[in-house]
Design a protein that fits this description.
The protein is mainly α. 67% of the residues lie in helices and 0% in strands.
């Protein structure tokens, strides 16, 4: 009986590995096809039956980048700048708010936190018109500040950090308070080091989201030199009555590679249970 049990466990494990391998192939295939298409002539991208192995290697699509993206280095630099600034500012603002809601005591705390959480129910698209009007009043249209300022804090980020801060032991904060540390000192010296996995998790998700953001930059930015790369990439479809799919594949590859690098280099630090602190408090 024990032999049959061991054999069934091995069979189940084989089926599990086969299923995981299948899912991995399905997830990787779009990137693999993007990579192949970026190095193929345009007429080879749509051949049928498609060739699933490298063939007809060519750098023509890369050479045509400057023709369709006259300022693509500047556009990429704009995306990089936003993807660097916004995550750090977002982490700073959201974690400060999360610390206040989790560990500080003030009148109306629960009510204010409920109001913050309630804003999650509001569709983001419904806020673009009032946000555009606000940025117009502040004379920030066609400015990167119009993208940075609204992204500095968000209800979901405050919620995540508040849940993480709830797991910070009160004993450590009390010991720091006895040593003379203020609220800011406890936040920097005690709370932040203990929630480092959450910091990295939020950084990865925010960075990837900002790097791929299209709709709001498309609305608020006008000058070609200030556009982000996803906006100019989407804008070349249909140029000259024909979409340059080879160049588009190169652009998509440029967008995908930094995302993969960030995720693969920091994925081991991602919080395994992002809502783990929700069982406390």
């Amino acid at each position: 009986m024990s032999g049959l049990h061991i054999g069934s466990k091995r069979i189940n494990r084989v089926f599990l590995y086969m299923a995981l391998l299948l899912f991995a192939l399905v997830a990787i295939f779009p990137f693999y096809w993007n990579l192949l298409s970026a190095f193929r002539p345009v007429e080879r991208i749509f051949t049928y039956p498609p060739k699933l192995y490298p063939s007809d290697f060519s750098l023509y699509n890369f050479q045509r980048l400057s023709a369709y993206f006259p300022q693509f280095p500047r556009n990429i630099l704009n995306s990089v700048m936003l993807a660097v600034c916004i995550p750090f500012l977002s982490i700073l603002c959201n974690s400060l708010a999360g610390f206040a809601f989790a560990k500080m005591h003030f009148r109306g705390k629960n009510f204010l936190f409920g109001v913050v959480i309630a804003t999650i129910l509001i569709p983001s698209a419904s806020g673009y018109i009032p946000l555009f009007i606000e940025m117009s009043k502040l004379r920030l249209v066609d400015s990167h500040l119009a993208i940075i300022l609204p992204a500095m804090a968000g209800a979901f980020g405050v919620f995540l950090f508040r849940q993480s801060m709830l797991g910070v032991p009160e004993e450590l904060l009390e010991a720091a308070r006895i040593d003379g540390a203020g609220d800011l000192g406890m936040y920097v010296r005690i709370a932040l080091p203990l929630i480092r996995p959450m910091l990295i998790t939020v950084y990865i998700s925010t960075c990837i989201g900002v790097w791929n953001e299209y709709f709001w930059p498309f609305i608020i930015l006008k000058s070609e030199s200030k556009l982000t790369f996803p906006v100019v990439l989407a804008g070349i479809q249909g140029l000259l009555f024909e979409a340059p799919w080879g160049v588009i594949m190169v652009g998509a590859l440029i967008l995908a590679v930094p995302t993969l690098i960030i995720y693969l280099s920091l994925s081991k630090y991602i919080v395994p249970d992002i809502f783990g602190g929700s069982v406390k408090g």
